[in-house]
Amino acid sequence: MTNSSGSNPSAAGPGTSAPGQPRWAWWVVGIVVPVVGIAATVFVNNRHSSADDSKPPAVAGAPSATPDQAKPAASADPASPENTASRAMFGPHDIQFRTSAYGVDIDFDTRKPLVADGLKGADLSAVTDGSGTAGSTNFHGGPRLAAIIAPISGSDADPTEAQCAKALRSNGDPMLQDPPQNAQFCVQTTEGRIAFVRVVSAAPGGHTMRLRATVWDLAT
Questions:
Q1: Is residue 143's pLDDT more than 90?
Q2: For residue 86, what are the contacts with CB-CB under 8 A and spacing of at least 6?
Q3: Longest dimension (CA), the chain
Q4: From edge to edge, which strands make up the β-sheet containing 175-176?
Q5: Which of the four pLDDT bands, split at 50, 70 and 90, describes residue 134?
Q6: Tens-place pLDDT, residues 9-31
């Protein structure tokens, strides 16, 4: 239906707004949208600029850290042999005693080794055949054979605790038959300590034996 002038009221002419909306509303939209876009761009750029400013300035000539350098230094393993080695509790010192066919006992689990007959906690028993010659004495791991003995190859330097422990693991036995003069062996005591023993002398014609011993304390 047309009005008296013949125009259609529902059709918006050029330069007019949609029905029910004033013309100025479109001008506002056209201005606000670009302004919002510009503001968002400025805000993002400012964020990036602030992040870059927070980084410390590079020092001229200073080398940059490589990935390996940036890693913290690894701590030594507390369980490694280097960290668990114990100190010597005794020796190296000489132990001298008169041999006996009934046996002489040595206890290495004391601050100074005890030498006596019939020691219940002895770690080494020396039993001689009475001749007093070198090689005439057998060694037992105490009267109860509770300690372990292992021969170890000779050298100019005494073995370390770790070397004795290795010999005891691979070749330990509660008895050592006729060790000759200058023979050396390791002992694991009844309390778990490790000792190194060298046969210094078993003089012919007498019954005196001299040993040189080192005893390591238990690791803490």
A1: no
A2: 161, 216, 217, 218, 219, 220
A3: 156
A4: 114-116, 104-107, 124-128, 137-140, 175-176
A5: low
A6: 444 444 444 555 566 555 555 66
Name which of 99, 106, 122 is nearest 178 in CA terms. 99
The total number of residues shown for the chain amounts to: 220
pLDDT exceeds 90 at position 207: no
The pTM for the full model equals: 0.59
Strand order in the sheet with 148-151: 88-98, 208-216, 194-202, 184-188, 148-151
Could you write out the DSSP letters of every residue in the chain?
A: ---TTS--TTS--TT-PPTTS-HHHHHHHHHHHHHHHHHHHHHHHHHHHHHHHTSPPPPTTPPPPPHHHHSPPPPPPTTSHHHHPPPEEEEEEEEEEE--TT-EEEE-SSSS-EEESS-TT-SEEEEE-SS--TT-EEEESTTTT-SEEEE----SSPPPHHHHHHHHHHH-BSEE--PPTT-EEEEE-TTS-EEEEEEEEE-TTS-EEEEEEEEEPPP-
Token output for 201: 């002398």
61 vs 117, which has greater pLDDT?
117
How far apart are alpha carbons 159 and 168 in whole angstroms?
12
Judge whether 178 and 135 are in contact, CB under 8 Å: yes
